[in-house]
Design goal:
Length: 361
Amino acid sequence: MAKITLSKLRHSYYPNPKQPSDYALKEIDLDWTDGGAYALLGPSGCGKSTLLNIISGLLVPSEGQILFDGKDVTSLPPDQRNIAQVFQFPVIYDTMTVYDNLAFPLRNRGRDEDTVKQRVMAIAEMLEVVDMLDQKAAGLSPDNKQKISMGRGLVREDVNVVMFDEPLTVIDPHLKWKLRSKLKELHQRVKATMIYVTHDQTEALTFAEQVVVMQDGEIVQIGTPVELFERPAHTFVGHFIGSPGMNILPCTLTDGAAYFADQPIALEGPIQGTPTGQLEIGIRPEFVSLADTGLPATVIKVSDIGRHTVVECEANGSRISAIIDGQGPAKGAAVHLNFQQSQTRLYVDGWIATQPQEAQS
């Protein structure tokens, strides 16, 4: 296990990058502590896999350094970094038994058979595959094959970091929650540094202690799942995390007050600086309510999602979603919307520009 430090990291697939758009990864500075559970979350093409390949040694960055416990490994090949990777498609040997698959990484490094047996049995018990050890891997179900692939990454005790690259992509949806739970349990038991790459917010938020949200080669926010949901630092985070995502509304400022559709909107706290740029209000649907007075709107869709009802409204050309308990109003109904002030924020060019009341000094 190791602390991983990324220092002034940039990468371009062009031989002579000249402008920011030429870089697949913009400048990244990041520390991952020893033994932590982390997720890289973002849409396809945001740079997640590029960053993972740089950490593993499959790519050499155009600029910057990668440090393991303070040691510069930027130019070291993968086999000298003591990294285990679990990919979208299980990497196992179908002709070998489950036992021999789990034993292979240890035998390949010359470990004695007593040590091999001890580690294989320990990992097999954690994965709940002891009864499969004598089976050929070819006959396993896709989820069990991925379990064995995970086990091959965890069986070595000298691994600095275990990296998971979209490991549940090929798993049936009804089995994904089982593997997510098992992976979380494995991390708590083995305490290895783990980095989980995914575009699926559910996978990231249920696995990781800290989530790194990426967009267009940049890190837009790092935080706990609760922090990312409750206080998005960027409108992209608010939109990407949550279902439905955060409402983003155009606004204007007059004498320091925010207005939408000529209605004053009370913000969580004071505005930082003198904003210039694209001004928007961000409010999650969970904090929008229907009331007798407030912002006039028209209901355009009502969706019963089980525990709650999502009411989609239109106001001044913008869509606003509210999550409410009980039955929603009829489509086409005229309603009024209230925003919970402590959860209503101003964003300037995508970045948060308000301070919560309790943060004032």
